[in-house]
Amino acid sequence: MEIFSIVNLISNKKCYERVRQLRWKEGVTCPHCDSKTIKKNGHDITQKDCQHYQCKTCQRYFDDLTNTVFAGHHQPLKIWITCLYFMGLNLSNNQIAKELNLHKSDVHNMVNTLRSGVIKRKPEVLLKGEVEFDEMYLVAGHKGNPEAIKKSGAKK
Hints:
This protein is 37% helix and 9% strand. By secondary structure, the protein is mainly α. It has one domain. A three-stranded antiparallel beta sheet has the order 1-2-3, with no helix packed on it. The longest helix has 18 residues.
């Protein structure tokens, strides 16, 4: 009996296509020098859907995943995308490991990598204009108020 897995429903090819759509909305640019003069340079040997490129300006090579959180890992992109999806569903690392048929330590490392990647890319929040809040909790202490200590009878 074959065990059903959501990973079997996901295509690595579609994952790479989506990464390209999200990453390069206005065409492929070199992640090293931001040049738009790029030529395609074959595909990855192990991940056949991963496009390789060469920049005509700086002559450096890169691929669909260069300088992304997914770069340099042995798991297929569809595993990473599925892991990210499961994280969004708030599954535990143990549940994700079971669903992806991976060791718990591998999933732990993947989850940490994905979370740190999200944190790095999160834009800084800048408030401007009028800012309101409903409640405030203030811890009152004696710092900077030596008279309060004298009144309470505390000894030095």
